Amino acid sequence: MTDFTQLGVKQIRDGVAGGDFTAREVAESFNAAVAAAAELNAFIVTTPDHALAAADATDAKRAKGEDLGKMGGVPIGMKDLFATKGVQTTAASHILEGFKPEYESTVSQNLWDAGAGMLGKLNLDQFAMGSSNETSYFGNVSSPWKKDGTNAAMSPGGSSGGSSSAVAARIAPAATGTDTGGSIRQPAAFTGICGIKPTYGRCSRWGVVAFASSLDQAGPMARSVEDCAIMLEAMAGFDPKDATSLQMDVPNWEAALSADLKGKKIGIPKEYRMDGTDQAILDSWEQGKAMLRDAGAEIVDVSLPHTKYALPAYYIIAPAEASSNLARYDGVRYGLRDLPEGAGLQDMYAATRAAGFGDEVKRRVLIGTYVLSAGFYDAYYTQAQKIRTLVAQDFEKAFEQCDVILAPTTPTASFPLGSLNDDPLTMYLNDVFAVPASLAGLPAMSVPATINEDGLPLGLQIVGKPFDEQGVLNAGLAIQQRAGFEAQPEKWW
Amino acid sequence: MGAARAASAQPMSVTREEVAKIASLARIKMGDEELDRMVPELNNILDWVEQLGEVDTSGVEPMTAVIPNTLRLRDDVVDAIPETSGGRREDVLANAPVAEHGFFGVPKVIE
Predict the structure, then answer these.
(1) Does B5 reach chain A within 8 Å, measured CB to CB?
(2) Burial class of residue A360 in the structure, from the number of CB atoms within 10 Å of its CB (0-12 exposed, 13-18 middle, 19+ buried)
């Protein structure tokens, strides 16, 4: 009998369409796998009935000979940052605990329309603020991976840590993620899976709990480049309800996938060779170059001179936007209300937000409030936005010499949960290689490259020109075919 | 000392009183212990971002839109997009901690 949980998006879709098995069988297998994996804490709520209903609808369509859609019969995990009608949506926060949206986010609706079903709502860092999945009100998520010879729970990365853990553990064939400053790519790298953040504006932000609106982008996380291409097609598309949505057709990325990179130039940014990067990561970068050369591409050196300033600029811009976006949590319209005895409106706001936000969220709201305050705005926020322009211009110039850029996704492999908690700055450095592409709005992907000497996965990052998800996916495919990454975490949950 | 510090009259580190003021502006109640913890954390972060002052940004425009995109106008039609249009009072109030008589309920603001 087929172990359905080993199958990816394409295999499930094609197998259901071809009548090899039913969507219901697949959904039942994954529902059971989810139920048996509570130790990972990847899900905040599970929705087995949603997965079964979608599967039955797909099976019924097939019986009638109807089109099953791009994701027909594929059950997925939904990051709990997407509003799902009638299903609790928390952003992993206490302040939104119990919130059941009256509407569906555009991205999740697109996926249901494409035939996908929902296994549940995936845990994440609170309001997507974090790089280790340790800021969730609903507890840490564990990676399915362990460091060789140790039993410590490892970080699945963040903020899409429930997504990465679930996909790597094979309790979901794919999951949605969102990426503000690396929140798809870093967790994908930590868990040996693929994840792509498309060009800013490809996926609608409508119904996605807002963190930093000029940076937030949704994208797929799955175990292969093909699966990411399929799912991104289903997620993306123009949405009149999002003012920054790109009014462009969604290309058929899956059909145009090609690992033949003849005539393509791969840029290697010298500034990404930073102190503090693991030797194994630098080695895997070298291997990545060799793989792309083998696929027919030419390797060229490029320079992104403002790289080192991207992360500090991000930690002004993102908190500034967050402080504005999170002003909506006031204890009046939805979510938590804390009304101390005899308190007035202002005291109610302050008490509600004190009780409802976690430490990292408070820290970023305070930073954001400070950098936007009178007297400091120009020195911090305007300066950061100018540096954002320079970072974007660096990429523009680099792309005059190359088609895509190859770099590490992260400076280190995953680390034990709890090991970086003392210092927020050390945690922020996880995203040093991921943030520049976010600031520039560019499509960027992480693909698994190898396993380090501790038995932990390492990822490689590909960054493309605006709208060139195809170029990113194709280079990713070339690496995937040559890296032959087949490693799976040993089941302990 | 970078240009960022030079550009502002005050030093780029925050005192306990300033953090209390920021918390108040952000409407987050903070006790003494939390303030004590937050002050050095915020100062570490502010010290670190101060390196942005090293960058010469004269003549550089601050970014306003990351991907060139024109702002659209929708047709001037009532209820053009059902999900964001009127007539959905019950939906809007469905998640309110307190909803009374078709309105959000809040503590008394006028004596």
Answers:
(1) yes
(2) middle
Euclidean distance between the first and final Cα of chain A, in Å? 23
User: Given an 8 Å threshold on Cβ–Cβ distance, is A350 in contact with B27?
Assistant: yes
Helix (H, G, I), strand (E, B) or coil at A246: coil
Parallel/antiparallel/unpaired status of strands A117-122 and A75-79: parallel
Whether the upstream peptide bond of residue A164 has omega within 30° of 0, thus cis, is: no
Contacts of A46 (CB under 8 A, 6+ apart): A31, A34, A35, A119, A120
Point out the residue among B26, B42, B49 whose CB comes nearest to the CB of A312. Answer: B49
Domains identified in chain B and CATH numbers = 1-57 (1.10.20.60)
> In terms of DSSP H, where are the helices of chain B?
3-7, 16-25, 32-49, 89-93
Nearest CA in chain B to A85: B91
**Could you tell me the two tokens for A430?**
């996880």
Both structure tokens of A67: 């089109």
CA-derived radius of gyration, chain A: 21
Structure tokens at A250: 């969604």
CA–CA dist A19, A13 (Å, integer): 10
Neighbours of A22 (CB within 10 A): 18
Say whether B7 and A214 touch across the interface (CB within 8 A).
no
Closest to A77 in 3D by CA, of A147, A161, A192? A161
Are the Cβ atoms of B96 and A392 closer than 8 angstroms?
A: no
What is the DSSP code (8-state) at residue A379?
I
The pairing of beta strand A117-122 with beta strand A298-302: unpaired
Active site residues of A: 79, 159, 183
Per-residue pLDDT in tens (0 to 9) along chain A, 493 residues: 679 999 999 999 999 999 999 999 999 999 999 999 999 999 999 999 999 999 999 999 999 999 999 999 999 999 999 999 999 999 999 999 999 999 999 999 999 999 999 999 999 999 999 999 999 999 999 999 999 999 999 999 999 999 999 999 999 999 999 999 999 999 999 999 999 999 999 999 999 999 999 999 999 999 999 999 999 999 999 999 999 999 999 999 999 999 999 999 999 999 999 888 899 999 999 999 999 999 999 999 999 999 999 999 999 999 999 999 999 999 999 999 999 999 999 999 999 999 999 999 999 999 999 999 989 999 999 999 999 999 999 999 999 999 999 999 999 999 999 999 878 888 899 899 999 999 999 999 999 999 999 999 999 999 999 999 999 999 999 999 999 999 999 999 9
